[in-house]
Amino acid sequence: MSLITTCLLLGLLKGSYSFCPPLISPQLSSLAQEWADQMASEARIDMIPEQRYGQNIFMARTGNLKSAVNDAIQNWYKDGRTEYCWEDVTENWENSLALDFSQVVWKNTKFLGIGATTTRTNSNKTVVIALYDPSGNIVIDGDNSKSEESFRSNVLPLQIS
Fold it and tell me: Which value, to the nearest 10 degrees, does the dihedral of the CA atoms of residues 56, 9, 111, 155 take?
């Protein structure tokens, strides 16, 4: 992904955080780009089997990288924020839009990697992949109280100034 597109992404996310946003990681960006290239060559989207990193994936209906990244952020952040249940965070665990949102704003995430590629079979679609380290929004099987506490301390309400 170009530096321009990466900067666009960070610019769109800047107002989303009530804390310092994660730093762009060249290593994560390379991995995200490799996965975006693979998904684009197959004209599909799927999570990286490696579960070490948090992930957001999106298939934009445009061949323009700038528009595709904007559409991905619209989906992950803005649409997800409207779906997010602040009163009972456990309701978010089965809602993919809410989980996408929580990963984007997860407070303890330190590094972010971005990849985007236009599909080869249809130039009007672009795969956008975001990877986060450390991973956020993990639901710990069998320990709802720990998961709930983690969500409450890492997904903070939007700060309006």
Answer: -60
pLDDT at residue 39, rounded to an integer: 92
How far is Cα 121 from Cα 34, in angstroms, rounded to an integer? 17
Cα-Cα end-to-end distance for the chain: 33
> Which parts of the chain are beta strand (E)?
23-24, 54-60, 111-118, 126-133
54 contacts 155 by C-beta, under 8 angstroms: no
Rounded distance between C-alpha atoms, residue 129 and residue 46, angstroms: 10
Q: Write the DSSP symbol of residue 81.
A: H
Q: Is the pLDDT of residue 129 over 80?
A: yes
Using one digit for the tens of pLDDT, what is the confidence trace for 6-45? Answer: 544 554 554 555 566 788 899 999 999 999 999 998 888 9
41 is written with which tokens?
């060559």
Nearest 5°: the CA angle 96, 100, 106 is 135
